[in-house]
């Protein structure tokens, strides 16, 4: 199959509407964040965790400015990979940060898969042996892989259907939970030692993981109708919708469960909160919504991540091997993404998956803002103070999160550092390799046909 055929089979211009794009964005955001992070954030921030969601929303609102400005100027299917390339060119900074984003997105998909398993097992009284959660997660990733092979119309249709059901369901959960609660007075007095600033910053970092799905919208750039306007609009609408939903759910959970109960049930705290308020029917309803939300999230995530890796491959920023597979590069990157997701889902628990994802994402995010500040602000007509604020907020939150993890789980910080060193060294070796040089020379005639 020639390269031209590869391209047309992959990127269908104008195939995503504004509502469809919003559904893909909220699909990723609402999937992971609200169902699995509520308990983890409560463990860090104590009773202040609903406010950590709001703090995360403020940080992400500043952060989204850079993405909106670049996507309005250069809409592209490569999304963040292309943005980094515009800022840093053919250098290590581009490849390294693009791969951090890629891995943080694969990590998010494993996070969704394990959350799906945790909630599903609540229908059967939990997962005592600890084997069923990863098995269910692995099955979900494989199902999403099959739907992704069927093409854009299927992905958009299924994601939109699931999106409408789950947003409606979460709204019902939040409103009924708040209405049935004994009182809306969330007990902020019990924060005790968790009132430490570092812990609140750590919880805010986890909250950002619940919003970062907005970046997947940028990866659909060349496939969105009127992308110069609609990519930015989709980002704003997605973040606003999630702020409302997360705040509502945070208060519903906090007013139905004690802090100790939220922490104890942290992998499935929404299901636990539904039981005192609504009994078994509430539990079944919440589990059904969680299963749909995480399934929709994985579907949208695999769609976006495989496109990003395909673009990095075309930009000659990562090596590519067909391993004897037929079809286009994007089909191959889909397979790599799914295999990596399966490994993480099978062997890592939820809190460690989340920690790796947030560290990788924040470092990449800082690089995007620095690129805007240093190289792109004139080209994309960006106000310079906004990326400056974003960098300061990101560094503050990353510092708080690292501090918490140093005291509670230093192993995961070690894994993150080693992974980043390996990515940087491997990327630098590839950029200097003769294989890349040959690939660049071979593709010179096609270079301007993007």
From TrEMBL:
Compartments annotated for it: namely: Cell membrane
Q: How does it sit in the membrane?
A: Multi-pass membrane protein
Any one GO molecular-function label of the UniProt entry = transmembrane transporter activity
What's the superkingdom here?
Answer: Bacteria
**Is Cell membrane one of the keywords UniProt gives this record?**
yes
- UniProtKB keywords: Cell membrane, Membrane, Transmembrane, Transmembrane helix
Q: Which residues form a coiled coil?
A: none
Q: Which PANTHER family match?
A: AMINO ACID TRANSPORTER-RELATED, INNER MEMBRANE TRANSPORT PROTEIN YBAT
Q: What is this protein called?
A: Amino acid/polyamine/organocation transporter, APC superfamily
Native source organism of the sequence: Vreelandella subglaciescola
Q: What is the lineage of its organism?
A: Bacteria, Pseudomonadati, Pseudomonadota, Gammaproteobacteria, Oceanospirillales
């Amino acid at each position: 199959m020639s390269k031209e055929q590869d391209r047309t089979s992959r990127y269908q211009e104008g195939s995503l509407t504004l509502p469809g794009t919003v559904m893909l964005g909220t699909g990723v955001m609402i999937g992971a964040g609200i169902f699995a992070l509520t308990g983890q954030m409560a463990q860090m921030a104590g009773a202040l965790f609903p406010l950590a969601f709001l703090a995360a929303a403020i940080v992400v609102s500043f952060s989204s400015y850079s993405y909106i400005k670049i996507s309005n100027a250069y809409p592209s299917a490569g999304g963040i990979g292309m943005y980094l390339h515009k800022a840093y060119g053919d250098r290590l900074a581009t490849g390294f940060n693009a791969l951090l984003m890629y891995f943080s997105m694969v990590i998010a998909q494993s996070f969704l898969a394990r959350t799906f398993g945790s909630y599903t097992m609540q229908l059967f009284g939990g997962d005592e042996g600890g084997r069923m959660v990863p098995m269910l997660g692995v099955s979900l990733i494989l199902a999403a892989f099959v739907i992704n092979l069927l093409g854009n119309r299927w992905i958009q249709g299924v994601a939109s259907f699931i999106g409408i059901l789950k947003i409606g369901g979460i709204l019902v959960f939040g409103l009924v939970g708040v209405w049935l609660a004994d009182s809306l007075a969330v007990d902020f007095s019990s924060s005790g030692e968790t009132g430490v600033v570092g812990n609140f910053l750590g919880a805010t970092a986890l909250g950002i993981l619940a919003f970062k799905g907005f970046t997947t919208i940028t990866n659909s750039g060349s496939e969105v109708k009127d992308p110069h306007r609609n990519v930015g609009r989709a980002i704003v609408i997605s973040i606003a919708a999630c702020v409302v939903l997360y705040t509502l759910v945070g208060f519903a959970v906090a007013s139905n469960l004690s802090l100790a109960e939220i922490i104890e049930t942290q992998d499935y705290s929404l299901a636990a909160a539904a039981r005192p308020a609504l009994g078994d029917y509430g539990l079944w309803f919440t589990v059904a919504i969680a299963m749909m939300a995480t399934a929709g999230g994985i579907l949208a995530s695999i769609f976006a991540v495989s496109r990003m890796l395909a673009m990095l491959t075309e930009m000659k920023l990562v090596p590519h091997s067909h391993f004897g597979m037929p079809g286009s590069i994007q089909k191959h990157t889909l397979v790599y993404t799914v295999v990596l997701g399966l490994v993480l889902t099978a062997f890592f628990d939820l809190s460690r998956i989340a920690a790796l994802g947030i560290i990788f994402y924040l470092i990449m995010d800082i690089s995007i803002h620095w690129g805007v500040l240093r190289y792109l602000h004139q080209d994309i007509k960006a106000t310079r103070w906004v990326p400056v604020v974003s960098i300061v907020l990101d560094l503050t939150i990353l510092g708080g999160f690292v501090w918490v993890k140093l005291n509670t789980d230093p192993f995961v910080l070690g894994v993150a550092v080693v992974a980043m060193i390996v990515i940087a060294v491997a990327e630098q070796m590839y950029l200097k390799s003769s294989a890349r040089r040959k690939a660049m020379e071979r593709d010179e005639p096609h270079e301007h046909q993007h």
